[in-house]
Amino acid sequence: MIDSSFLAAVSRLIGPSHLLTEERDVRPLCLDWRGRYQGVPMAVAYPGTRDETAELVTLCARHRVPIVPQGGNTSTCGAATPDVSGRQLVVGLKRLDRVIGVDTANNTMTLEAGMTLAQAQEIARQQRRLFPLSLASEGSCQIGGNLSTNAGGLAVLRYGTMRELTLGLEVVLPDGRRMTALEGLRKNTTGLDLKHWFIGAEGQLGLITAATLKLFALPTAHATALVGLPSSQAAIDWLGGLKDAFGDRLTTFELMTRDCLELVERFKTADVPFMAPVSVLLELSDSGDDSTLNERLVAWLGNRDDMVDGVIAMNESQRAALWNLRETMSETQRLQGASIKHDIAVPSSAIPEFLERAGDALRAEFPGCRIMAFGHAGDGNLHYNISATRADAARLFEDEPRVNEIVYDIVYALSGTLAAEHGIGQLKTHWLERYKDPLQLSLMRSLKRQLDPDNLMNPGKWLSD
């Protein structure tokens, strides 16, 4: 058992009101977002400063107490959930929410890791700048969690993932040492770029406490349209055409199959202007005014002869309605009931083949199954979710291993990945073992052993041996 002197020392360090030990307080914080994992921690600690965080990690290392870093607890794979041993300390960073600095001339901002994504977006906006990461959970997810999962979202097509948006990090290593590299440099050839070790590592190599992030000019013009197309191949053809015509003004290209829109219409979660085999929400952004950009988009659309239907937003309320149709997709599916979810990516050019092959294979083995496919076709990332594999809906997850095998085999045959933006966590560890190149996985685990020989930083996840 853990010596009570440890918790007493934590309480003295961060203050007793910031150390939660009662089950009624910690239990909700240790249930993952999808409700699949319920942890039982020793306690939940909220350090108030970056110095306190480093001291807390040092204290944990001294007492050999494992740490589970936690941001907004929006992980869909159980990455921020402790095990049931009662020996792990959850370290939440919500109190680390300060602005360290904003440099508009350099187009950077440096923030503590506990700031929510929505707060970070607003700080940029106040400086007439854009921080482009955009996710459905942006009101509650935190910058540290976004970094730990290399978050993507709705604007990767133009701006890239969190990895591309990050110039510097501050990280507390498993032994309590603090690596501070928050310089806002875009060129630096003094050796390896160590920040990339920690982005996407899901808190297993260290605890991110601050980051220097890229800012961009705040767009003043948007042109947004929802178009219906005859097939997913037509959608990918449109993607190429839009890139040719508009370059990096093409910010968003979101694909939704007919099944998705039929479900939205059934539950009345958003307005559905038309039905088509495939619908695409696309958006252009630029400087200048909306009317000029809209005119260019209308002219381009007028030269297409393969559009089933379409609407263009002529004002901000119409634009918001089109975005609501896309953003309500996950919640709408939740209303339908449980599903087997996949966060896969293939090259955008392979999306039509993936949809055809996976759909045929799943329906052959699970006749009548329902498939919801939607997501970021501009960067190849699809949320591919399956429900109703059998008449007895309560037994859905008995089919999960076989459903996953079918989907992932096709994904990897098309040079894809089983985790595009949600990470691995606890949920996909055994699948990573099956599909990841063994040498790459071995190298990553060697780094884990080097930095964290006692396996104290988020143990039990995919980097642990």
TrEMBL record:
Obligatory cofactor(s): FAD
InterPro entries per the UniProt record, alphabetical: FAD-bd_oxidored_4_C (IPR004113), FAD-bd_PCMH (IPR016166), FAD-bd_PCMH-like_sf (IPR036318), FAD-bd_PCMH_sub2 (IPR016169), FAD-linked_Oxase-like_C (IPR016164), FAD-oxidored/transferase_4 (IPR051264), Oxid_FAD_bind_N (IPR006094), Vanillyl_alc_oxidase_C-sub2 (IPR016171)
Coiled coil: none
SUPFAM superfamilies referenced in this protein's UniProt entry, alphabetically: FAD-binding/transporter-associated domain-like (SSF56176), FAD-linked oxidases, C-terminal domain (SSF55103)
Organism: Paludibacterium paludis
Domain FAD-binding PCMH-type positions: 37-218
N-terminal signal peptide: none
Keyword Flavoprotein among UniProt keywords: yes
Record-stated family: Belongs to the FAD-binding oxidoreductase/transferase type 4 family.
GO MF term list: catalytic activity; FAD binding
Highest taxon of source: Bacteria
PANTHER family xrefs: BLL6224 PROTEIN, D-2-HYDROXYGLUTARATE DEHYDROGENASE, MITOCHONDRIAL
Protein name: Oxidoreductase
Record-linked PROSITE patterns: FAD_PCMH
GO biological processes: respiratory electron transport chain
Pfam families associated with the record: FAD-oxidase_C, FAD_binding_4
Keywords carried by this UniProt record: FAD, Flavoprotein
